[in-house]
Every structure is written in structure tokens, then in C-alpha cells.
């Protein structure tokens, strides 16, 4: 431990320009500053590092993928999406979307299938020659396109503009991110965790898109995550550029590296 009091000595340098002398035009070497620290002996406080949580129990019967999906995309979140999508249709076109939770579930099922069954363009699933019954029989193409057009997650009329207090680049999807994150935090944490940045592959248009040429996934959206040894993500925060971490006055600013670790571990149980 060192005191706040220390002296700085600047050794004489032949490169230092004297008053009244003309500059030689040559590049100057940086002066080396020697710092002297006053050390003192103190007792280091012992930190209890023993794991106090309950061991995770592996369920005897594994649930279906649908059940796991519904743990995060539950009816509460779906009702919010339905409400905001119907509102957005009225705000922009003055028309009724008449979207319900059941219709939204069908729409989301089709979206998941479109990611698995690849075709040159998605409308081929409704065309006569390439019709796919598991999709076309569940919802008409025009109805699917209409829901896709008005799908929304937050009220645009309440969004803050860039430069205003409280501006959020993720405002349009903030309710979804907040809901899913709260579900992640409900899962019993493991004993060992790792905190690191991850890339969600993405090449679309977004001011959140990052390009990291030295990473395996070069284009995408950067996310700071706290994951257990099982690979499950217990907490996350989407990187929005400078100022993403350390802006809260209630939290100490330990620099980028320190804040990356401090923020995710703050949600661990005591």
C-alpha cells in the first residue's frame, strides 16, 4: 500500500529548450518521470471466497425444447409484444392489426422454421410449386407479411432522441432484453463463472454493429456476458459504444476492464 504523497523528480536533459533559444526543429525525446512511492505495512483484510450457494440439481426428466423456450418467452412477454404491435399499426397506418397471443405464437413458429428450412426467398413457402404445408397451412402469406411489418416491442412516441437525457440505442427492444435477462437471473447460479465479450453474428444495418478483424466472428453485435462452466449465460449487457459501462453514479468507475467485471458480478446473490 502506498501513500498519496510522492515526489516527482525531472532529471536535467540536454534536449530541454532553454528560454530565448531557437527551436532546432528536431523531434524531442519524452522526459522520463521518476516516481518515488512511500510504502507502509498494513494488515490485508481476508476475503471469504468459499462457495455458499446450493449445488445445482440435474432434473430427472428433461423438458422439451418448447418448454425451455416458453420459460423465457412466456405469456407476459408475448402480451406485451401483441400490445405494442397493435399500437404501432394504429400509430403508423391507422389500421387494426388484430394480433392475438395465439396468432403471435404461430408467427414466431414460422419465423423459427424459416431459419431452418432455407430457400432463396421466404415467399417460396407459399408458392404452388414449392409450397411447404407446415408453414402455408398455418398462416397466409399476406397475413404473415402484415404481422412482420408491424411487429414492435416498445412505444416509439416515448423514445428519447439522441443527445437527450435518458437516450437509449436499444430502446425499441429494451422490454424484450429486460424480460429475458430477468429470466436468466432466476436460474440458480453455478459456483464458477467466466466474464467475457461475445459476438452475435450480424451484418445488417445497425449502429451497434462492430467489426473485429482478429475475432472468429468479425461482424456482429458485441455483448458482455457472465456464463457458468456449463455454458449457460446468467447475465449479459449489450455493448452500445463508449459509456456503456461506468455511467452509473452509484457505481465506482474502475476503467473499462474493471467495469466489465464489476457490473455482471453485481447481480450475483450475496
UniProtKB/TrEMBL annotation:
<feature type="region of interest" description="Disordered">
    <location>
        <begin position="1"/>
        <end position="30"/>
    </location>
</feature>
<protein>
    <recommendedName>
        <fullName>PiggyBac transposable element-derived protein domain-containing protein</fullName>
    </recommendedName>
</protein>
<feature type="domain" description="PiggyBac transposable element-derived protein">
    <location>
        <begin position="64"/>
        <end position="263"/>
    </location>
</feature>
<dbReference type="Pfam" id="PF13843">
    <property type="entry name" value="DDE_Tnp_1_7"/>
</dbReference>
<dbReference type="InterPro" id="IPR029526">
    <property type="entry name" value="PGBD"/>
</dbReference>
<feature type="compositionally biased region" description="Polar residues">
    <location>
        <begin position="10"/>
        <end position="25"/>
    </location>
</feature>
Amino acid at each position: 500500500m502506498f501513500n498519496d504523497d510522492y515526489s516527482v523528480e525531472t532529471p536535467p536533459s540536454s534536449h530541454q529548450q532553454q528560454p530565448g533559444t531557437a527551436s532546432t526543429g528536431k523531434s524531442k525525446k519524452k522526459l522520463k518521470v521518476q516516481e518515488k512511492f512511500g510504502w507502509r505495512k498494513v494488515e490485508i483484510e481476508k476475503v471469504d471466497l468459499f462457495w455458499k450457494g446450493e449445488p445445482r440439481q440435474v432434473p430427472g426428466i428433461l423438458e422439451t425444447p418448447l418448454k425451455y423456450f416458453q420459460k423465457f418467452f412466456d405469456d407476459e412477454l408475448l402480451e406485451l409484444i401483441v400490445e405494442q404491435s397493435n399500437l404501432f399499426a394504429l400509430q403508423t397506418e391507422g389500421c387494426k392489426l388484430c394480433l392475438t397471443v395465439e396468432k403471435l405464437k404461430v408467427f414466431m413458429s414460422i419465423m423459427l422454421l424459416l431459419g431452418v428450412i432455407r430457400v432463396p426467398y421466404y415467399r417460396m413457402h407459399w408458392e404452388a410449386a414449392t409450397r411447404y404445408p407446415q408453414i402455408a397451412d398455418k398462416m397466409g402469406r399476406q397475413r404473415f407479411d402484415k404481422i412482420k411489418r408491424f411487429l414492435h416491442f416498445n412505444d416509439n412516441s416515448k423514445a428519447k432522441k439522441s443527445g437527450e437525457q435518458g437516450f437509449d440505442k436499444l430502446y425499441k427492444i429494451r422490454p424484450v432484453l429486460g424480460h429475458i435477462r430477468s429470466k436468466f437471473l432466476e436460474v440458480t447460479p453455478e459456483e464458477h463463472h467466466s466474464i467475457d465479450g461475445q459476438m452475435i453474428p450480424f451484418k445488417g444495418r445497425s449502429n451497434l454493429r462492430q467489426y473485429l478483424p482478429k475475432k472468429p466472428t468479425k461482424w456482429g453485435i458485441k455483448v458482455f456476458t457472465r456464463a457458468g462452466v456449463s455454458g449457460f449465460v446468467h447475465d449479459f449487457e449489450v455493448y452500445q459504444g463508449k459509456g456503456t459501462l461506468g455511467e452509473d453514479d452509484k457505481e465506482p468507475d474502475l476503467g473499462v476492464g474493471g467495469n466489465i467485471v464489476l457490473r455482471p458480478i453485481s447481480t450475483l446473490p450475496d
